[in-house]
Structure formats: structure tokens, C-alpha cells
Design a protein that fits this description.
This protein is about 35% helix and about 10% strand. It is an alpha/beta fold. Pfam families: Prenyltransf. This is Undecaprenyl diphosphate synthase family protein.
Length: about 375
């Protein structure tokens, strides 16, 4: 991805495996659910995009399945030594006591491999509960005498840096810049609450076994666009909301890409195409508001036209005739049942102007 704005630390919550299996009538087990492809894809993508820190977290609902979902494929399929030769340093986050003894020992050995020229710090979260870890860190700081208002305690005051070091050591995890969660759920589920305070959140509907390098790359593109939009909003020359500013779209589209705008020196820049996974399209806020208002008005007109046509059909009037006003079923004595679903129409009198889609109807929308 050609971008100067990359996240330093990406967390991927590997959700959606149970749904993937249930949709196919399979059991959620290592025999039925392929665990290697998605894991290989996300590590390859992080290396390709030069993301320095990557943390992989099984969803809390599948903590007991973390061994075969994450640890076994990492150690067996990808191989700790092969990853080490590619510049991947492995570390562990959480409680590994629930893993099989042999698996836990191999995971410790993988973390003990010399760092060498580290291209990617890969953190494997096993039975991780961010809130419990945060509480344990605060309790440990209080136990050492920190927090004494007199300032005479040996530990000193409780600071943000002190809490951060207590959580994961002096060389612990940096703050998270981007969280990607697959599976369609929109929550963090206690994943690194301290580190994710200012993180960008991207939730994907793709199920974890179907995750590819393209999903990861598109998420990084969206992250880059969000950062650029944030910079534009805080720029001292940023335009205020009002009349839509269409200058960024005075594009020279000779490159054949319909989603690219021309770049000049007057604050206009290249808008990367995001047509692909997820169908991402980015427009300036003012343009979006303007187009959205027109869309809502047209939807109202179309709805009124559809109601008028349906009323004609129910009353037995030919649809090809023209009339300024079409009586709704509520104008007649007693309710009329919809032949399609048996639902009674409202009996309140109502008259609707017969207007075609996109034409003014002369009355407010529904």
C-alpha cells in the first residue's frame, strides 16, 4: 500500500469461526475449521505492509479453543523457527495455564528465540482479559506504596507510564493504533482497554477463516484515509461546512480509475480507490450531506408514488389512467385487507397526489 500513514500497532480479533462452521453445518473443531490460511494471511500481510507490532486475539467466546485456533497453527503450520528467520519475534499475552502443557512449553520456547533483526513483533493473546490485567496492575502499584500523596513513598506517584510498564514490562506493548475485528461483531470484548483508548476501530463482516491479505490491506487503506481526514479537519485552512466544495473532484480521469481525483498543489490530493473488499467509497463530508439530502427527498417521492399505484390496484382502477388525486383505502367505508399479506389498511382519510418518482408531490413525505 502506497501510504505514508501506517499504524504502528494493529490488533486483530479473530472472530467468526463458529458462524463459519454453523453456516456449513459443521462442528466448530480443528477437524472442520481451517485455521492455517487466515493466520498465515494476516502475518504475511503485516510483514508486507511493514507493520511493526501485530497482536492476535481469539474472541472471548472461543478462549478454550485458542490452542487449535491460534497457537497450534502458529507453532506447527507456520513454524516458530521459520517465522524467526523472517524476522518475526513471538511473545505471549494472557494466561497460558489453560493450554496443554506441551503446547505452553513450546510457546515459551518460541518466545525465547533471539530477536535478531526484528521485522514484526507478534503477540499471541491466550485467555486475555484486559480489565483483569488492568486491575492487577493498579493493585500491584498500590502494594508497592505508589499513590501516597505525601510523595515520601519509595514507589512515587501512580502515573500513566507506571501503569503501562506494570501491565507488560518495560519493553511492553505500545499503544494500539488500529483494531480489526472480523465476524461482524462491533465490540472490543475487554481486549487491551488501556492500549486501545485512542485506537481506530474497523469491524469487518468477513468471517475469520475467510480472512485474506486483501482484507488486511484494505483495512490499512481505510485507516490511512481516516488519518488524512482527521488532519484535514484540524487544518487551519480547512473549509467550513456549507456549500459543497467539489474542487477535489475536478478530476482528470485519464488513468482509467473512476475513483481517483487529480492532484494539484492547492490542498487537493490523490484519493485512493477503495472499490473492492467492503465496497469502500470516500467523499468529503459536505458532498456526502448534499447527496444524502437529495437521496432522502427522492425516496420520499418514490414512496408516495408507490402508495398511489398500490391504491389504484386495490380499488380496481386501471394503472394507465391519470388523476390529480388518488383516494387511499382509508377514504372508503371500513378497512380494506391487503390481498398479499392480509394486513388491514388504516381507516383515516388520506389523499395523495399522483406524482412520478423524482417529481414534487405537493405534500410532506411519509
Amino acid at each position: 500500500m502506497a501510504s505514508s500513514t501506517l499504524p504502528g500497532h494493529v490488533v486483530v480479533i479473530m472472530d467468526g469461526g463458529t458462524h463459519w462452521a454453523s453456516y456449513r453445518g459443521l462442528d466448530f473443531s480443528p477437524v472442520s475449521v481451517p485455521a492455517d490460511p487466515a493466520l498465515r494471511a494476516v502475518i504475511d500481510a503485516a510483514l508486507q505492509q511493514r507493520v511493526p507490532f501485530l497482536t492476535l486475539v481469539p474472541p472471548p467466546e472461543a478462549v478454550r479453543d485458542a490452542a487449535w485456533m491460534l497457537v497450534d497453527p502458529l507453532l506447527n503450520g507456520l513454524g516458530a523457527r521459520r517465522l524467526h528467520h523472517r524476522g518475526v519475534r513471538i511473545r505471549t499475552l494472557g494466561d497460558t495455564s489453560g493450554l496443554p502443557e506441551e503446547t505452553a512449553a513450546r510457546l515459551v520456547q518460541a518466545g525465547a528465540l533471539p530477536a535478531g533483526d526484528t521485522a514484526l513483533h507478534l503477540t499471541v493473546a491466550v485467555d486475555h482479559d484486559g480489565r483483569s490485567e488492568l486491575l492487577d496492575a493498579v493493585r500491584a502499584l498500590l502494594a508497592t506504596g505508589r499513590g501516597d500523596r505525601s510523595g515520601d513513598s519509595e514507589g512515587g506517584p501512580v502515573t500513566s507510564d507506571a501503569v503501562h510498564r506494570r501491565l507488560h514490562g518495560d519493553d511492553g506493548l505500545p499503544e494500539v493504533d488500529l483494531v480489526i475485528r472480523t465476524g461482524g461483531r462491533h465490540r472490543l470484548s475487554h481486549v487491551l482497554p488501556w492500549h486501545c483508548a485512542d485506537a481506530e476501530l474497523i469491524f469487518l463482516d468477513v468471517l475469520w477463516p475467510d480472512f485474506t491479505t486483501e482484507h488486511f490491506r484494505r483495512a490499512l487503506e481505510l485507516y490511512d484515509l481516516r488519518q488524512r481526514c482527521e488532519e484535514d479537519l484540524h487544518h487551519e485552512d480547512a473549509p467550513h461546512l456549507g456549500v459543497p466544495d467539489l474542487t477535489p473532484f475536478e478530476a482528470d480521469l485519464h488513468d482509467g480509475d473512476p475513483m481517483r481525483a487529480a492532484v494539484t498543489g492547492d490542498r487537493r490530493r490523490l484519493v485512493p480507490s477503495l472499490v473492492g473488499v467492503g465496497g469502500l467509497v470516500t467523499l468529503p463530508v459536505t458532498v456526502t450531506v448534499h447527496l444524502g439530502g437529495n437521496l432522502v427527498d427522492n425516496l420520499h417521492d418514490t414512496a408516495r408514488f408507490a402508495k398511489a399505484r398500490l391504491a389504484r390496484a386495490l380499488l380496481g382502477e386501471p394503472l394507465g389512467t391519470t388523476a390529480e388525486h388518488v383516494p387511499m383505502p382509508g377514504d372508503l367505508a371500513g378497512p380494506i385487507l391487503d390481498a398479499g399479506c392480509g394486513h388491514p389498511w388504516a381507516t383515516a382519510p388520506e389523499t395523495v397526489t399522483d406524482a412520478g418518482p423524482g417529481e414534487p408531490s405537493g405534500r410532506p413525505g411519509p
